[in-house]
Amino acid sequence: MDKAEDLVAEIEALGEKLAKAREMTARRIIGQEAVVDNVMAAMLAGGHALLIGLPGLGKTRLVDTLSTVMGISGGRIQFTPDLMPADILGSEVLEEGADGKREFRFIPGPVFCQLLLADEINRASPRTQSALLQAMQEREVTVAGHAHKMEKPFHVLATQNPLEQEGTYPLPEAQLDRFLLQVDVDYPDRDAERDIILATTGAEEAEAEAVFNTEDLIAAQSLLRRMPVGEAIVEMILDIVRAARPDDESAPEIVRDAVAWGPGPRAAQALMLLTRARALMDGRLAPNADDVTALAKPVLIHRMALSYAARARGDNLAGIIDGVVEGIAPKEAAA
């Protein structure tokens, strides 16, 4: 009983701290509350987020603000068509000492930080994009046969221009699956845009302050994994993920007819972690069905692909995922 009471107290204290972090972030990021919440949830879950949106919507400012608020070191890589893997990971150089002895020394690349902004990641070639794969999954990079550990925690927030723009390379499925969720960054509404121009064109701008530090964030990520999840929520997560696979017996007709391939087990893992994070940020002791329905689309949409026929018809994944969730959520919520 004491352990349960301690867990409750820890969750409540973290919820208060997260509320302060959200408030601090809102000083500089105006009118994008859902975007901030989803990105912060990804960090709490110990993962990476893919930000989709046109240039000039505050994605870079968001990453800069979050690195300050969460008290971790930030880095930035501007992806371009001529960027090479060594420009990201680093390289070994041959140096000669005062005694004439020569030896190789590793010079770390910009990937060696705690919160990396991979800006316009789909501008770079597939070879360069894949250079991030090992760092994102294994938290280490291998250069010239030597493994180099990343500092903990390590998160990648990658921004991507819409694929219909010229000069972009679609991310491969293996790399997309490394992102816990996809966050769509839309234009702000009129009132929010008014607040933005007033807040950012004056003599002074609001400054963010650190609420967390490295140890706090690592402790929060550990606490999140200890948060209990009800059996009904676990079953709801499994039902939604499996129903999004066209070859699964539980898949509805709309999925069988329009989806070429569906989400793997990583999607269920991501949904489990992110529902806990959303509950934490709302100051609740356990996730509920609303958390699952709110996060299903961001978790699944980049892990699925439409068939050729579905693309020709003009189908869209967002509508298909909504249909899957609507067919499952009411039953589970009532359980």
Please give a handful of descriptors for the protein shown:
alpha/beta, 11 strands, 335 residues, ATPase_AAA-3, five-stranded parallel sheet, Rossmann fold, CbbQ/NirQ/NorQ/GpvN, disordered C terminus, MoxR family ATPase, 15 helices, Helicase, Ruva Protein, domain 3
What do these coordinates show?
InterPro entries: ATPase_AAA-3, CbbQ/NirQ/NorQ/GpvN, ChlI/MoxR_AAA_lid. It holds the Pfam family AAA_lid_2. This protein is an alpha/beta fold. It folds into 2 domains: 1-226, P-loop containing nucleotide triphosphate hydrolases (Rossmann fold, 3-Layer(aba) Sandwich), CATH 3.40.50.300; 230-335, Magnesium chelatase subunit I, C-Terminal domain (Helicase, Ruva Protein, domain 3, Orthogonal Bundle), CATH 1.10.8. Helices cover 49% and strands 15% of the residues. It contains 15 helices and 11 strands. The strands form 4 sheets. It has a 5-stranded parallel β-sheet. Strands 3-4 form a two-stranded antiparallel sheet. Strands 6-7 form a two-stranded antiparallel ribbon. Strand 3 (90-96) and strand 4 (102-108) form a beta hairpin. Helix 1 (2-26) crosses helix 9 (214-226) and helix 12 packs across helix 13. The chain is globular and about 70 Å long. Mean pLDDT is 86; it is low at 331-335.
